[in-house]
Write a structure and sequence with these properties.
The complex is a heterodimer of chains A (253) and B (181). By secondary structure, chain A is α+β, with helices and mostly antiparallel strands. Chain A is built from 8 helices and 9 strands. Chain A has 2 domains: 53 residues, no CATH class; 170 residues, no CATH class. Chain B has 181 residues and is mostly helical. Chain B has 2 domains: 80 residues, Orthogonal Bundle (Rna Polymerase Sigma Factor, Chain: A); 78 residues, Arc Repressor Mutant, subunit A. The longest helix of chain B is centred in the middle third of the chain and has 24 residues. The chains are: A alpha+beta (253), B mainly alpha (181).
Chain lengths: 253, 181
């Protein structure tokens, strides 16, 4: 390939502006590693574009500036990580009976957890509100049937052996979901906190809101490279380390 | 707002990734003018444009972890992100304005008819340069850069082979180099 001809063909500009086809983009990403001159040409065009565009500015009003700066500041004050309720999932709407396999999978998952809960909880039956005969909340159909998603069972630790939840973790997209099967209510002074283990270190994923029980919840900001998860109970608002809290649940991918 | 700090690009990216507010203020004050200009090329009304500008910066805040320096400069990433938000807003507004029941085929067929009206009020910057191009070159850039259609879709809309779309896009860029970069 004549690299100079390639450079002058207009492909660099299209690539930088994101107008290439995915094939052209892949080709460019490969070629830029092989040809320093191409890499330089890309950077030079990016700089040129940036300089030119920073000279052609139109400033928004001072009110807009204030509003947006305030908005950015407010984002910074919100906890970085939060649990967001997934769309309400009702069995009638979400479960497509034409695909009975999925239903069977869901039933099996539900039955399995009910069974294990029952086994573990025999002695503590009087204390614990079990799920009885009602099935577990139905997960988002596409999520639970997606082969790319790994379910991670999280089991009760120590005196909290009865507690149970499942994480659903898509390593490819980083999407994660949590389904809490059993976890006692926290009081006003305490919060449950979800942790991920990355490179041997715990990273806080967020506070678990009590209202998410019995729902299938999408979890934001699960760090890439997480290999294990923990749930601890600590002071309200969260702890800086899981060591400061009481370990309730743990599970490993 | 007076921001005295000056960052190198890697420093700025690092601070943005840890959600440092000063870094976001710096980013906003330094790049808002260029990105606002991009938005104004499509949405000339101040209220809409400033709402989109806010959406752009909130999106940057939320998605900064997806920025990969090995694939390009921060400004290029922000520029593409701005363009994508503008395109999705255009589509939402077009969808609302033009018949609720319009199916995709009709939408695609009507794109060309929609173009001239939309452009008439927006002769600013790059778009102005683009509209000086020969019609066949103008159309591919208009559909690709401003309306976000993939090359395959453009081939279908204009009823020309994909290879011709590629050639026209590259020729349009070469023409634009004289004026734009």
């Amino acid at each position: 390939m004549d690299i100079q001809e390639y450079i002058s063909s207009g492909i660099i500009e299209l690539y930088v502006m994101g107008l290439c086809t995915p094939e052209e983009e892949k080709e460019m990403e490969l070629l830029r590693q092989q040809h320093p001159i191409l890499e330089q040409a890309i950077l030079a065009y990016e700089m040129q574009l940036e300089n030119k565009m920073l000279q052609q500015v139109t400033l928004p009003s001072a009110e807009t500036d204030q509003r947006i700066l305030k908005k950015l500041e407010s984002l910074q004050q919100t906890p970085v990580v939060k649990m967001v309720t997934n769309k309400d999932v009702t069995p009638a709407k979400k479960l497509n009976w034409i695909k009975p396999f999925a239903a069977a999978v869901l039933f099996a998952v539900s039955a399995y957890f009910n069974y294990t809960l029952l086994q573990k909880n025999k002695k503590l039956e009087g204390l614990v509100k079990t799920e009885g005969q009602s099935p577990l909340p139905l997960a988002d159909y596409e999520v639970i049937t997606n082969p790319a998603i790994t379910p991670v069972g999280m089991y009760g630790q120590g005196s909290h052996a009865i507690c149970r939840c499942t994480m659903f973790w898509d390593k490819k997209t980083g999407n994660a979901y949590i389904m809490i099967h059993h976890l006692p209510q926290s009081n006003d002074a305490t919060d449950y906190q979800l942790w991920a283990e990355v490179d041997g270190k715990p990273v806080s994923v967020g506070i678990i809101d009590d209202s998410i029980r019995g729902k299938f919840i999408k979890v934001q900001n699960v760090p890439a490279g997480a290999i294990a998860f923990k749930v601890t109970l600590g002071k309200s608002g969260g702890e800086s380390s899981p060591e400061n809290g009481d370990l309730y649940l743990a599970g490993r991918i | 707002m007076n921001i005295a700090i000056k960052y190198t690009e890697p420093e700025l990216v690092q601070q943005l990734k840890v959600k440092d507010n000063t870094a976001y203020q710096y980013l906003y004050m330094n790049y808002r003018g260029a990105l606002y200009n991009v938005i104004l090329q499509t949405f000339s009304e101040e209220e809409t444009a400033s709402d989109i500008l806010q959406e752009v910066f909130v999106h940057i805040w939320k998605n900064i972890d997806k920025y990969d320096a090995s694939k390009g400069r921060l400004f290029t990433w922000m520029l593409k992100l701005t363009r994508n938000i503008v395109i999705s807003q255009t589509r939402i507004k077009n969808f609302k304005v033009h018949s609720k029941n319009e199916d995709i085929d009709n939408y695609v067929n009507n794109v060309e008819q929609k173009m001239p009206q939309q452009v008439a009020v927006n002769h600013i910057g790059l778009r102005q340069q683009v509209h000086k191009l020969r019609p066949e070159l103008k159309d591919v850039i208009e559909l690709s850069y401003f309306q976000g259609f993939k090359q395959e879709e453009i081939a279908e809309i204009l009823s020309i082979p994909l290879g011709t779309v590629k050639t026209r896009l590259r020729n349009a860029i070469i023409e634009l180099r004289k004026d734009f970069v």
